[in-house]
Amino acid sequence: MATFLYRLGRGAFRRRGLVALLWVALLLAAGLGAASAAAPTSGSFSIPGSEAQKAFDLLDERFPGMAADGANARIVIKAPEGAKVTDPGPKAEVQKIVSALKTGPGAAEIASVADPYEVQAVSQDGSTAYISAKYTVSGMELKKDTREALKSSGEAAKATGLNVQIGGDALTPVPETGSGEIIGVAVAAIVLVITFGSLVAAGLPLLTAIIGVGIGVSSITALANVLDLGNTTATLATMIGLAVGIDYALFIVSRYRAELAEGRERDEAAGRAVGTAGSAVVFAGLTVVIALVGLAVVNLPMLTKMGFAAAGTVVIAVLVALTLVPAVLGFAGKMVLPAGKKSRLFGKGKPAGAEQKANGGTRWARFVLRRPVMVLLAGVIGLGVIAFPVSKLEMGLPDDGAQPVSTTQRQAYELLSDGFGPGFNGPLMVVVDGDKALADSTVDRIKGLDGVVAVTPPTLNKAGDAAVITVIPKDRPSSTHTEELVHEIRDGSGDDVLVTGATAMNIDFSQKMNDALLPYLALVVGLAFLLLMLVFRSVLVPLKAALGFLLSVVAALGAVVAVFQWGWLGSVFGVEQTGPIMSLMPIFMVGVVFGLAMDYEVFLVTRMREAYVHGERPGQAVVTGFQYSARVVVAAAVIMIAVFAGFMGASDQMVKMIGFGLAVAVFFDAFVVRMAIVPAVLALLGHKAWWLPKWLDRLLPNVDVEGESLRKHLEESADSPEGLDKDRELVNA
Predict the structure, then answer these.
(1) How far is CA 168 from CA 13, 109, 430, 493, in A?
(2) Could you tell me which Pfam families the record lists for this protein (predicted)?
(3) What are the residues facing 395 on neighbouring strands?
(4) Helices (H), 537-584
(5) Least confident of 56-65, 532-541, 718-727
(6) Cα 14 to chain centroid, rounded
(7) What residue ranges do the domains of the chain occupy?
(8) Would you say residue 369 has pLDDT above 90?
(9) Which fold does the domain 358-404+517-702 belong to in CATH?
(10) Measured between alpha carbons, how far is 11 from 149 in angstroms, rounded to an integer?
(11) What is the distance between the terminal CA atoms of the chain, rounded to a whole angstrom?
């Protein structure tokens, strides 16, 4: 493979104009597709095989239109102290809001508006009422005039002293990252300048990464409605694609400069950089793709689509690194090097870097080799302590109660809780597949359960063979007591009584995540173990990589629990409301962090393997690996942390939590596991680290990541004019 990638990189360098033109054309085509496509929606949400989904499907069959995927809004009105919403003045203002929604701007997208005085949507003390509005389209598809009409519907009432707030998903905004993402890219640029000492070399990874992400995200936007992709899919693809895109280009550029430092011609340096570092990029990218595509094991369409979309962006990042990066290096010329080195590298003097001096990576590796047990224990115990909060992990899905206190959605949530009880924000919908007698007996049974505040009379369909019952729990939607109530209703019912609704869907979603975590982990780690065994020709190195990953991801989850569930340092990280950790967080972190963790494993240990194969002793090979790779791996980790941390400025709680979790996980994995635990373990293992049974060595194909076959091929070409001519023909083909 190294020989093929060498030819690919050298060919891209020589035909840089054509390569650059092709990538720009792809970017323009994807951009035009995104510009002409309809705005992405929130994406459909389903949990195949769950009781909540079965009830929803039955509801859609027996009550056509009731389960329509249109947006909902609740306009909550609270009277001033000492007044009631049933008083003539407040009542008139409430009815004006109802009339404005029915006949004003945006009325064409209104499916129904419920007058609170007709449907008994007034609290017992008369202080609070709410208007329910149902729309024909999802919140993301609402026209601007409709959204503005909803936002301004209570302005006149507020002027009279009423407190009017709006909840529901009709005003759910597209997740915004604000300036955080820009700050992350700016930090990445600074790190690149410090690492390379050249503005051009620093800008090159940023430029190519942005082109790759632009193609990936534009393609996702263009296909969003066709493939029913959620509006957060592009955000997550941007987050992952930008991080790996910068890192992959960084490793290629760094190796290119090292090859120039050995006195090679520019096209030869580009070919060797892609043939060696490019091999590591390919396998690092494969581990990320395996982790993301493996999310399909969970059998949740939403998560599967997110994983495939993000994996597609990673594939584009790999292709950009292998082709566009060497092409742009051809345009950059001498400007990829610091000013003081240009003359030495391109002139007649001694090649810079001919004698490698000890650097920070070398000194750190030697320190670890002297005290491997101490470093290993410190790393494992430290991460273990940080991981402790995972034992108290509570999972759920956020609702309006998790919104910032300044938002109207959060204030509407609080008003409904105060006026009607905490459980009113998460009603349960019980669907009965039977006649009125079965529905009535179901109502009587549910009324006798603890934790139930109210049960509505059954609503039968026209055929009289199905009914819907609404149950108001005593506790808030995310409460464990509400979850116990759902299970109690289900356990006491037969197959013809099903519980659904947003709260029940969240409970089933969390259970689905829990059930899928271990199978998913086994699949992803197993496949990546085989892949790393191919790369390193070792059994213990992949095993160490997998165990180190588990340690870092559990520690990162512990940090997420401490900040987002317990509230530790919450104000520092912009967490306004603590609560359960999102159900998809553990499995999503396992998928993404595993792929990213293997990036650093491949980039760092590949250099060690290369040195060991070329005759160095195990300890010296570790030092050599750190000498050449530590600086670049540290820079790559800082860049990735900055990119992920930039998404913590997002308005969406899910994006904020994922950004924090990934940033912390990369920090733990890069600086504690890969830079400390890995060299300590390799030092203790010695030659055994690279042991592979002979029978297994014969079975496994040789992918030659360290470039040994490439080295022999180039030596033969150099000794044979015919071989060199043949190689040039292959490059030009």
Answers:
(1) 54, 16, 21, 30
(2) MMPL
(3) 581
(4) 540-560
(5) 718-727
(6) 37
(7) 1-36+198-337, 42-67+428-500, 72-168, 358-404+517-702
(8) yes
(9) Multidrug efflux transporter AcrB transmembrane fold (1.20.1640)
(10) 58
(11) 18
Q: Which amino acid is at 325?
A: V
Q: What is the rounded CA–CA span in Å between residue 8 and residue 19?
A: 11
Phi-psi region of 444 (alpha: psi -120 to 50; beta: other; left: phi over 0): alpha
Whole-number Å distance between alpha carbons of 699 and 530: 12
Global pTM value: 0.79
pLDDT tens digit sequence for 692-722 = 898 888 888 877 665 566 666 666 665 555 5
Tens digits of residue pLDDT in 261-283 = 888 888 988 998 898 888 888 88
Q: How far apart are CA 706 and CA 279, in angstroms?
A: 8
Whole-number Å distance between alpha carbons of 481 and 414: 19
CATH for 42-67+428-500, options being 3.40.50, 3.30.465, 3.30.70, 1.20.5? 3.30.70
Check residue 355 and give its pLDDT. 46
Cα radius of gyration rounded to whole Å, the chain: 30
CA dist., res. 531 & res. 393, Å (int)? 32
Write the pLDDT tens digit of every residue in 437-466.
Answer: 999 999 999 998 988 988 988 889 888 899
Domain covering 72-168 in this structure, CATH number: 3.30.70.1430
Top CATH class of 1-36+198-337 equals mainly alpha
Q: Indicate if 358-404+517-702 has the same CATH topology as 72-168.
A: no
Place of tokens 């689905």: 512
- Alpha carbon distance 98, 132 (integer Å): 9
Write phi, then psi, for 407 (nearest 5 degrees): -80, 150
pLDDT band at 527 (very low <50, low <70, confident <90, very high): confident
Query: pLDDT at residue 726 above 50?
Result: no
Q: Interior CA angle at 280 toward 278 and 285, to 5°?
A: 95
C-alpha distance from residue 181 to each of 155, 184, 207, 303, 644 (Å): 34, 5, 15, 23, 8
Higher pLDDT, 568 or 528: 568
Cβ-based neighbour number of residue 174 at 10 Å: 15
Structure-token match 């494969």, residue found: 286
Whole-angstrom distance, CA of residue 532 vs CA of residue 348: 42
